[in-house]
Amino acid sequence: MLKTQFIRDHRDEVVRSLKIRNWTEEKITILDQVISADDKRKDTQTELDSLLSQLNQSSKQIGELFKSGQREEADKLKQEIPAIKEKTQQLQETLSQAKESITELLLQIPNITHQSVPAGREESDNELFQACETELQQLGEDALPHWELATKYDILDMAAGAKITGSGFPVFKGKGARLQRSFISFLLNEVTDAGYLEIIPPLLVNEDSARATGQLPDKEGQMYHATADDLYLIPTAEVPITNLYRDVILKEGDFPIKMTGYTPCFRREAGSYGADVKGLNRVHQFDKVEIVQITHPDRSYDTLMDMVTLVGQLLDKLELPYRILRLCGGDIGFTSALTYDFEVYSLAQKKWLEVSSVSNFETFQTNRLKCRFKDKDGKTQLAHSLNGSAFGLARIMAAVLENNQTSNGIHIPDVLRGYTGFDIID
């Protein structure tokens, strides 16, 4: 969440960012609403402070008058107190409403985009940051998409998941289940070897947690809500892991804070339909290993590139062809200042599948989280937060199955064989 003073001091920068995100001039007037509401807050606060000071002075004066025997003057002044108290109560209510109004407005304003974020309206406008260095292989004409391979080798059953729960809830079986578990173990081992602390967080979060990392109110329609308990199923482990540092004041020596966690993730993906949702391409429940960092503001963009490098190395080890995109203003997330998407190439479907996003949120999340640190001068500052997927496993599974199929079966990538205990699915 942006700060009101930042909007006042850097209005041109905020407007530039909103235009990159394709906001209209009409929507951008929300900035004036914030400033107007803040002016009202300031005026109310000034009036309230004056009345409280008057009340304090009157109370002292009444005491002094009683002590000096001037009871009549004291009683006269005392009669004025109820009216002052009533006015201060009204002003406190007005002040509270003004603060709530400002917060509700600020929650609607997305993060400031980094200067490198390209203009654009949709996915096709994203900028190629790094191309796949290896030449894409070709499969035979009889190559099958992963949903047909799943049926052929009896390793994944989407129909069973639909019967048990609904469409978009996969059931992995036999070697398919073992392979899925192997992905998780491999990725967690690799990431913890890179210095990330493994976390096993809750799979449900309260409203404060979802709001702190920016899922609410932006992605309310995509989240599953357990209304009886007012809890939300997590769309990503980013939410509970980052919230470990809500309302925390750190020291500079605590940085960098590097955390990772495997969780199932739940997304409603309302409105999804067509060929893009077949099989594992777009599901409502999927496994994911997440990486999160909280770091010093001066280091966060170097940290972002470190995280991008790590994700690329994992894809190299899985022998998957990939490319990296810098997301444009129309496709970048509400909370992100800069995002790089990783896409792997599905040789059977002949299309790119997004498997990871790595983002720097700068102070947008930490302002909501109140995650701060004391700098070397003892001044309190907001930390920067970052996160990345390593990976969303549904599409990784799809690409591995499709890209490694042969007439004899599906070969397992070398790095996973110690985890699966088998070399081929046949």
Describe the structure.
The mean pLDDT is 94. An eight-stranded mixed beta sheet has the order 1-11-12-13-16-10-9-4. It has a three-stranded antiparallel beta sheet with strand order 5-7-6. Strands 8-14-15 form a three-stranded mixed beta sheet, with no helix packed on it. The two termini are 51 Å apart. It has 15 helices and 18 strands. The chain has two domains: 4-106, Helix Hairpins, CATH 1.10.287; 123-425, BirA Bifunctional Protein, domain 2 (2-Layer Sandwich), CATH 3.30.930. By secondary structure, the chain is of the alpha+beta class.
Number of helices: 15
CATH homologous superfamily heading of the largest domain: Bira Bifunctional Protein, Domain 2
Spatial order of the strands forming the largest sheet = 1-11-12-13-16-10-9-4
Domains (count): 2
What separation lies between the terminal Cα atoms?
A: 51 Å
The pLDDT mean sits at 94
Reported CATH architecture of the largest domain: 2-Layer Sandwich
The CATH class name of the largest domain reads: Alpha Beta
C-alpha geometry: elongated
Radius of gyration: 28 Å
Give the fraction of residues assigned to helices: 40-55%
Biggest beta sheet summary: 8 strands, mixed
Strand content: 15-25%
Structural class: alpha+beta
Extended strand count: 18
